């Protein structure tokens, strides 16, 4: 009989990691041209991309750094006086200067709230690339940077792809576009971004203690079956799969009921425990989260939420019928919500609504506000059952 002593020892917990490149989930290095031309293309693309996506631009200013090192220009500001960081509010934007090198951990952190990162590929690598075929900047010695070319961009006067590049790309069907056709390049970038939208998985929150109800709210039967099973069935048509958030002691009964339990790996945080546990299980999916105490919720209302989902925002939620705030327990939480929820938790806040209120989220008017009514007491349960029977 195997014992713990015979099990392979693992030094660290095996965690699912987010699919990040050098800087973000969706990033494009622009290379194959002088830096000025790369920056000019990014500036042309931004007005077409920014209405849909939050875009970051990453570049390097080596000339200024060289001037300081060579003594031809003095280092200025609080960093020169010894500060490690200087935060400046410039009214229309804020600027943070930090005295530390970039690395694979700090780079994604600095632009984590952006949907797309455009990168000067002359200075930094990225998971995907836009290649400008500028004769002044041949890429024959940089082919190792061309790992996933999404488009070849032809400047005026250039009509052919070099033989060395055709050989490197092999059978890949890479679009070829005029560098001057800003609209076509932006359309390609947006189309690929939307195609890469995270898959939707479902989560029923059913791990609470139901203290006000006096017994497990998830086991109440408003529709001829336990509410947690009914909620899972509601989610199923919209999600790749559906899990039921639970306490560890609930796992056996949920499995016996044919449900897919997801025990809380974050303890004693209320609904946040279930949301964070789902994002820990799969940080690359968006999670459609529904509380088990919404017996009036319909597929029509869920369909409205899914159809109006905005993957470029941190979450898509309904406005509470009681106030103007977002309702966190019937919400699509995008992958970007994971670090944001953890950040608020580190600041001492376990309320998912507070995170929504203070983040970039889409808030929808519910088509049937009465369906968002939580049922927490026996009296409310009786009223809900009467409404369902009518």
- Number of DSSP strands? 15
- What is the distance, rounded to the nearest whole angstrom, between the alpha carbons of the first and last residues? 58 Å
Q: What is the spatial order of strands in the main beta sheet? A: 11-10-9-12-14-13-15
| Unreliable spans | none
Structural class: alpha/beta
In DSSP terms (H or I, runs of 4 or more residues), the helix count works out at: 13
Q: What is the alpha-carbon Rg in Å? A: 26 Å
Compressed to H and E, one letter per element, the order equals EHEHHEEHEEEHEHEHEHEHEHEEHHEH
Proportion of strand residues: 15-25%
Main beta sheet: strand number and arrangement?
7 strands, mixed
What integer is the average pLDDT? 90
| Shape estimate | elongated
Helix content: 25-40%
Written overview of the protein:
By secondary structure, this protein is of the alpha/beta class. It is 30% helix and 19% strand. A 7-stranded mixed sheet has the order 11-10-9-12-14-13-15, sandwiched between helices. The protein has a 6-stranded parallel sheet with strand order 2-5-1-6-7-8, with helices on one face. The chain has a two-stranded antiparallel sheet with strand order 3-4. The longest helix has 15 residues, at 35-49. It is elongated. The termini are far apart. The model has no long low-confidence stretch (mean pLDDT 90).
């Amino acid at each position: 009989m195997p014992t713990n002593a015979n099990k392979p020892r693992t030094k660290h917990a095996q965690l699912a990691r987010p699919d990040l490149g050098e800087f973000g989930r969706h990033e494009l290095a622009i290379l194959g041209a002088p830096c000025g031309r790369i920056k000019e293309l990014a500036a042309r693309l931004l007005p077409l991309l920014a209405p849909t996506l939050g875009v970051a631009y990453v570049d390097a200013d080596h000339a200024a750094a060289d001037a300081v090192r060579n003594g031809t220009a003095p280092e200025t500001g609080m960093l020169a006086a010894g500060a490690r960081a200087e935060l400046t509010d410039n009214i229309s934007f804020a600027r943070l200067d930090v005295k530390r090198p970039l690395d694979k951990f700090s780079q994604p952190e600095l632009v984590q709230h952006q949907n797309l990162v455009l990168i000067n590929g002359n200075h930094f690598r990225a998971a995907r690339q836009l290649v400008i075929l500028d004769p002044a900047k041949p890429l024959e010695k940089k082919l190792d940077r061309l790992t996933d070319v999404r488009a070849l961009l032809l400047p005026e006067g250039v009509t052919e792809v070099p033989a060395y590049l055709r050989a490197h790309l092999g059978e890949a069907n890479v679009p070829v576009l005029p560098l001057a056709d800003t609209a076509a390049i932006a359309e390609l970038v947006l189309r690929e971004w939307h195609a890469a939208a995270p898959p939707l998985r479902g989560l029923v929150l059913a791990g609470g203690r139901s203290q006000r109800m006096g017994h497990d709210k998830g086991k109440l039967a408003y529709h001829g079956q336990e509410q947690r099973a009914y909620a899972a069935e509601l989610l199923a048509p919209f999600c790749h799969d559906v899990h039921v958030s639970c306490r560890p002691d609930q796992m056996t009964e949920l499995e016996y009921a044919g449900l897919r339990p997801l025990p809380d790996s974050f303890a004693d945080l209320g609904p946040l425990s279930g949301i964070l546990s789902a994002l820990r299980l799969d940080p690359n999916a968006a999670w459609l989260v529904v509380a088990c105490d919404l017996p009036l919720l319909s597929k029509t209302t869920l369909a409205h939420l899914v159809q109006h989902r905005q993957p470029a925002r941190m979450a898509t939620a309904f406005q509470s019928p009681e106030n103007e705030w977002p309702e966190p327990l019937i919400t699509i939480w995008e992958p970007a919500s994971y670090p944001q929820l953890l950040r608020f938790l580190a600041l001492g806040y376990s309320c998912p609504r507070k995170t929504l209120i203070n983040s970039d989220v889409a808030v929808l008017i519910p088509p049937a506000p009465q369906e968002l009514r939580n049922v927490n007491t026996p009296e409310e349960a009786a009223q809900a059952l009467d409404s369902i029977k009518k």
